[in-house]
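Please go through the protein record below and explain what the tokens say about the fold. Record follows.
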Amino acid sequence: MVKMPELLIEILSEEIPARMQARAAADLKRLVTAGLKDAGLEFTSADAFVTPRRLALVVEGVPEKQPDVSEEKRGPKVDAPEQAVNGFKGSLPDDAVIEERETPKGTFFFATIDKKGIPARDIIFSRLKPFLDEMTWPKSMRWGQSHRRWVRPIHSIVLIFNDEIIEGGLAEHGFGATSLIGPKEDRPEGVISVGGLTLGHRFLAPEPFSVSNFADYKQKLFDAKVMLDPADRSAKIETDAKALAEEAGVKLKDDPGLLAEVTGLVEWPIVLMGIIEDQFMGLPDEVLITSMRSHQKYFACLNADGALANKFIVVANTETADGGAQIVAGNERVLRARLSDAKFFWDQDRAKTLESRVDVLKDRVFHAQLLTLLEKVDRVASLAGYLAEDVGASDAKLAQRAALLAKADLSTGMVAEFPDLQGLMGQYYALNDGEDVTVARAIAEHYSPVGPNDACPTAPISVCVALADKIDTLVGFFGIKEKPTGSKDPYALRRSALGVIRLILENDIRIKLRDVIGFSQFLYDLNHFDESNDSRRKFNAGEIGWQDVERTKLSEDVESLLPFFADRLKVHLKERGTSHDLIDAVISQGTEDDLVRLMKRVHALQEFLSTEDGKNLLAGWRRAANILKIEEKKDGMSYTDAADAALFDRDEERALADQLAAIGPDVSSAVADERFQDAMQAIAGLRAPVDAFFDKVTVNADDPALRANRLKLLNGIRSALDGVADFSKIEGG
């Protein structure tokens, strides 16, 4: 079997951050393969690999050179001026074949130019620097006298094509190596060596060695204590960790994110187990796990009952003569120090109640224009109380209590040390203070959902506070014109809006967004902008409750929140397979701000348009709307009046008018009662008379009165369907 030519590239560097590795490998593969294709070098397969110190790419089936091509070029006519002819001939290479050829437009000179394909190795080497230049990194650095940037200093490059080592140096200012494989005296300063030499594990196999092809490269790396394929390293870590945990009578806690990160930190993974001292096992599990995971990259273990075990898994990047005993001891010391701090914070924080910490929030700025966290807490508490009944919370005071305490843990030592635990620590401290369980739970859950895949709270008190917190944030920032623009969203307002949408839809909450937004604006106005309104003064004095507040018109900026929610809803539903045009068709009518009701309408419309009646009726609506658009523009008037039955001269006109009259009350009643399926069924009754009307009736009759009356019938069709959705927004069909 003939071996296909193979391209091997390795970029050896200082340690590439784990979070950047997967994208870097994908970028290298994309850039190189695209460059090969652009050069006419087709290939059969390409695979990229990455370790902390290297990016590698192997491309199979690359031809040894570009294909030869023959290009034909037409010149001037044979009888053209001599200057033109000589200019044409002078532009051609010496080996071009020139002939005269008859064409329908006369006799012309034609030249045939044969171009020999360039060897692939020359193309590959010439494009090596652009490949490096074009790679993008979230963060990069310069080193030495370089003016160019890369993620980390590059040491050397392996470049082998068809078992031939391509040797050289890359001296493109900015890609200077901090150390080079091979004698330094043979390389000018700032030149990256290119060839067949590489390095294995930094400590276990530090000497350079030569490779000849990918199979040789991968095996020699393994012999030099480097597992090239991240999938192999990940599988080894997981398998060895599970086996070690099982041997110790515990179970490894699944953590795919940590596994991926640790895989990117080691080239030769060695799995070891450490012990957590008993004095720390009284800390909340989340504190223990965060200390281990976030700071030290340790895997947690569980007992048979699911409780956190007093053992952890650490993955080393080296082998030791003592079987890792010193490594384990060192990691236990580091963990002990971290957990000692955590225990101190845990004990100190519980000495004060959450309620006593609320007043401290007056010293924490929420935003320069939106004042302090204490004022935000006050607004959120009022808004949570306002929402309680609609959300299904039996006790509005509990919702307000949870909102009042929700941010109090921000002043605790534990949250200062572990910011990711805010809310969760508040729950623990609330329970310690004897707060209601639902209040404690709401404190923990009020930031949720954080993203599209984050769990959504379902407990009514939690939902109240989570909704209130997010809506307050949105109204505040929109009110001061701090809206997302393009890809910029510094205050994560898109995420907050998605959170509101998910909380409402997943909990089937029947609220009108405009009213809720209006009350939130009222609370901002009350505290910051305008106290002239009497209802605001009375509310502030406690003379009236939120139920009695007369809300003013939304400001222009806050009003723009409603289309913002609509856009977020479209993105959310599109990801779940609902076409955006159906959402537009319902939203664009501008009357629907009850998201649950809106979704019922969208689903009913989607189901209707999937039927033959729906498809045909949509086609009929389009025909009617298009004719009306043309004729109304031509006539300079609209045909919105009711058609005159006395002018009907065809049975099809009468049948259509009768059906329009018959379904009108049915559609209105069904929509009002949220029987959207029934509304669509009533609309479907128009299909037959609409089809018959267009089949048998000429709309643009010679008689002007008859023509106008028929146009009014078309408007009846348009209006009937617009009663359930804006059909102009529906695409296709």
Remarks:
- The chain has 28 helices and 18 strands.
